[in-house]
Amino acid sequence: MNSVIINNSLYGTTAASEVFALNAATGEEIWRFAPEEKKSYLKTRGVTYWTDGSEERIFSTHAEWLWCLDAKTGKPI
Question: Which of 11, 18, 19, 76 has the fewest CB atoms lying closer than 10 Å?
Fold first, then answer.
């Protein structure tokens, strides 16, 4: 699983396919997103980051879904 560090935030996924953001300097959790559908056999390939200069997004897969999350809040877009 790949993680990324952007502007002092580390974005990644857990073994349970939850997506999280941490303060990269302190390790403090900023937010966590857990998809409603839980399946123990699912694999994730990590996260990727996108910005247009004003908005920031984190993309991650879960089952057949591609999730787009607000990078600052972790809320689905």
Answer: 76
Greater model confidence, 37 or 77: 77
Angle at 23 between CA 51 and CA 77, to 5 degrees: 40
> How many whole angstroms separate alpha carbon 71 and alpha carbon 21?
8
**What's the chain's length in residues?**
77
The helix/strand/coil state of 17 is coil
Report how far residue 28's alpha carbon sits from residue 26's, in angstroms, rounded to the nearest whole number: 5
Cα–Cα distance for residue pair 22/5, rounded to 1 Å: 9
49 phi and psi angles, rounded to 5 deg: -120, 145
Higher-confidence position of 3 and 42: 3
How far is the C-alpha of 62 from the C-alpha of 67, rounded, in Å? 7
